[in-house]
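Researcher: Next sequence.
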Amino acid sequence: MKIGFIGLGIMGGAMSANLIKKSNRDVFVFDFDESKVAKSAAIGAHACASSAEVVENADVIFTSVPKAEHVRAVHESVYDVIRSGQIFIDMSTIAPKDSVTLGKKLMSTVHNFLMYQLLSQSNKQSMVRWVFMLVDLKKRMKK
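Model: Next structure:
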């Protein structure tokens, strides 16, 4: 299984670094900030030039971006390269209603979509509480 990570900010950077160092998997990364991509590549990630390149190479794709319009832009940029069986996990800090709306659109294409919603955070985002929302994944994976 190959892993993709789109968004390498405070949360995404830390989570992807953990996967790069400990998962023993190929991890493909993208962020608009090229220095963040270079930092991930320096510890073993495969640097990608776009979100679509991440999706073309990965089986499980994590997104961690700051706003709903960023999530929407990522999704819209990858619809043409999504393949059957891929799993998308969005951990972006956006309103739950936006996650549901964007997730429904993505599920119509990919079928496997998880949303992790951040409910609270400290100043340095070191203390987080997550609610794991499984959106129709169990039912769809049985098909």
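Model: Residues 117-143 have pLDDT under 50 and may be disordered. Strands lie at 3-6, 27-30, 46-47, 60-63, 87-90, 113-121, 128-134.
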